[in-house]
Amino acid sequence: MRGRGGPTSGEVFARVARRYDAVNRILSLGRDGAWRRAAIAHLPPGRVLDLGAGTGAANREFGTRRVVALDPSAPMLDLNPQRRRVTGYGERLPFADGSFDAVFSAYVFRNVESVPETLAEIHRVLRRGGAAAVVDLSRPASAWKRALHRVGTALVLPLVGLLARSPREYWYLHRSLDRLPPPERLFGEGPLALERLWRMGPFGFVYGVVLRKQR
Amino acid sequence: MPVPEDLLAIMACPVCHGALEDRGEGLACTACGLIYPVRDGIPIMLPEEASRTGGEPPA
Fold first, then answer.
1. How far apart are the C-alpha atoms of A1 and A114, rounded to whole Å?
2. At A203, phi and psi to the nearest 5?
């Protein structure tokens, strides 16, 4: 979540904080909540860490779980109505080992500085048998859909950026889609066990994964 | 605004994972001595925002 060169994702998200959730709702044609809900349904009850919670877009999906909201951006957390809020990085979670039954993270993994370090930290703060669910955007799985999708986001995201009056930030989002390997590889190397992977949305460009800390 | 107790109970220093105690001026790590500020009940657990006792920035 600390960028190298250019604006850091923390700075980017501080600037777009207030419009971010509304624009993302429009971009996903109102499906972003359903995609979060589908992933949270796989998590055990108890205490859940919302990693990259932002303004709290996932709050209504957690049911009776006890939520701890963590985000590197203080301006976004200020807008999050959760009672337990912490400013922090995914790569350096400020929690004791085994503190959580579940970890949830939506639309965040493209923006963390180090996915391996973040996964190692999630593994550390989960109890044995606990689970993490991650939802994020990536490119579609097939080559021709991937190429078409790349052209699409190159055209659409700058327009959305103009509407949101932050074109640079939305160009950053377009670029971030190509930053990471596909989820099969990203989550297939541990330390958490990849238990489930599915794709959602048009062209299947949204993925969900369930990761387990095994006994 | 204080940090909720059930949150403080599971928190640890993000640098060394040491235990934290609420010292009013911030959350102090009992192992490495870093002090993290708290703003409006939200602990700022970013290493670059932490200070040493006496307000010196970390090395």
1. 8
2. 65, 5
CB atoms near residue A86 (< 10 Å): 25
Using one digit for the tens of pLDDT, what is the confidence trace for A41-67?
999 999 999 999 999 999 999 999 999
What's the N-to-C CA distance of chain A in angstroms? 30
Residue B26 domain-assigned (yes or no): yes
Tell me which residue range forms the domain holding B19: 5-52
CA A8 to chain B, closest CA, distance in angstroms equals 14
> Beta A126-137 vs A193-200: how paired, if at all?
unpaired
Task: Assess if residue B24 is contained within a domain.
Answer: yes
- Say how many domains are in chain B: 1
- Residue A80 carries which DSSP code? -
CB proximity A79 to B under 8 Å: no
Residue A89 per-residue DSSP state: B
Q: What is the CATH number of the domain that holds B19?
A: 2.20.25.10
Sequence-separated (6 or more) residues with CB below 8 Å from residue A211: A119, A122, A131, A132, A133, A134, A187, A192, A193, A194, A195
Q: How many CB pairs under 8 A join A and B?
A: 56
Asked if residue B29 is part of any domain, the answer here is yes
Pairing label, strands B20-22, B27-29: antiparallel
- pTM of model > 0.95: no
For domain A9-212, say whether CATH 1.10.150.530 is its number: no
CA dist B30 and A78 (Å) reads 28
